[in-house]
Amino acid sequence: MSETKRSFREQIFRVLRSPSVGFPQIEEDDLRKGIIIIIIIGLLSSWAGVVYLSKTEFDLSSMFQGGPSGMGGRGGFFSGGSQSTPEIDPDVLRRTMTPFIAIGGIVGAFTRWLIPSVLVLITAKILIGDGSTKRMLAMTAFASLPQLAQQLLRVADAYTISSVDLTALRTPIFPSTGLVLKALNQGIKVFNVFGVLTLALTVYAVSANYGSPKRRALTVSVTAYLAYVLLKVFLPI
Question: Are 207 and 213 in contact (CB under 8 A)?
Answer without folding.
Answer: yes
